[in-house]
Amino acid sequence: MEILQGEKSNQKVHVFENYMFLKSGGSADGHVVYYRCKESTCSATAKSTANGLRVILGTLPRHDPDLELLDKMRLKDELRRLARTTPQNFRKIYDEVCPRQVPFRILFSRFYRRVI
Ligand SMILES: [Zn+2]
Q1: 36-56 in b/e burial notation, b at 16+ Cβ within 10 A?
Q2: How far apart (Å, rounded) are the C-alpha atoms in residues 45 and 115?
Q3: Cα within 13 Å of Cα(26), Cβ side
Q4: Three-state SS for 66?
Q5: Mean pLDDT for the chain?
Q6: Among residues 80, 66, 69, 78, which one has the least CA distance to residue 106?
Q7: How far is ligand 1, taken at its centre, from the CA of residue 40, in Å?
Q8: Domain boundaries, the chain
Q9: Which of 71, 62, 63 is nearest to 15 (CA)?
Q10: Separation of 3 CA from ligand 1 center, angstroms?
Q11: pTM (2 decimals)?
């Protein structure tokens, strides 16, 4: 499972078949991890092995994956990773990595105010 940083700083989003899930719990023996859809109104669930390598969908999502949001989150993740691992100015990294069609102020409206 691909794991992305969620909108809240302590939130991890788990991606499976382009759907975004949040961890909702685990089995008592720690072998199984349970997830629910990131959309609070959706009842889709999934479970995985503890290492996240085998994933099984439970209740299926009744909506299309939000590919636009997923793209944005992947981009943010990449930017955060670069910001942590390179000495470059955050804005400069953004200019090099981001496609023009995603304006900085939209992608990082909250993050921007906090970091810079
Ligand atoms: Zn859903």
Answers
A1: bbbbeebebbbbbeeeeeebe
A2: 34
A3: 10
A4: coil
A5: 85
A6: 69
A7: 8
A8: 2-57, 67-115
A9: 71
A10: 17
A11: 0.77
